What we know:
255 residues
Amino acid sequence: MNVLIVLAHPEPHSFNAHLAEQARQAYLAQGHQVKTVDLYQEEFDPREGAGHYPSRKQADRFDAMQEQRHHWTTQALPAEIRRHIELLRWADTLVLQFPFWWFGAPAILKGWMDRVFVYGGIYDSRHRHENGVMRGKRALLTVTAGASAQACAPNGRDGDMRLMLWPIMHALHYIGFSVLEPFLVYGVRGGLTGEALQVQNAALAQVTQAYRAGLGDLAAWPAVWFNRNEDFDADLALKPGAPVYSPFVRHRDPV
């Protein structure tokens, strides 16, 4: 199996970097091929824009989708984007490792998706959802939060962390990935000293052990469910009686 780990944390000695390394070691120990992309260390530019496209299809107006498709077709995408696309196509399993900042992923990871999930190459009108280019591949989010598990629970003060990750998981599903339930780590805080730091280190050591154990059998890891194309009518509305897997795609309440 080929595994691609994408790390999005600016500190090389962060717990996120530690988990990414633990995943790398765990997969290597299982005999898999592993490649890691550290977006901050590579100084990846997350800003999509006209400056990335030297041979514009439309010189007077920038249309990201059209320029992506044009440059994909003419094999003129930026070298770093071509490399990341090749890595995605090489991988059987994708791991996105990042901290939960302001109720979402760091901007560099969102920008990576904006620029690497190119229209025409990674998706188009015929290759989406269960028919996506990445069909047959798995994706896993491994995410840390400074808040407690209770604060990030559905009835917690910070809101349902798992639910707020749905847009990223849906984007991965959109290009064809089978998405696994995210591995969520709570209470990862900086600035601790003394006994508080010891308690946190002990807790995170247990988390690391559980993470490596889980990676040992991804086939048993629960999946995130999404509606299939057959669940929608010609207007792309959820059919009556179709299953509901998320509050983001649900039946309208009766008027």
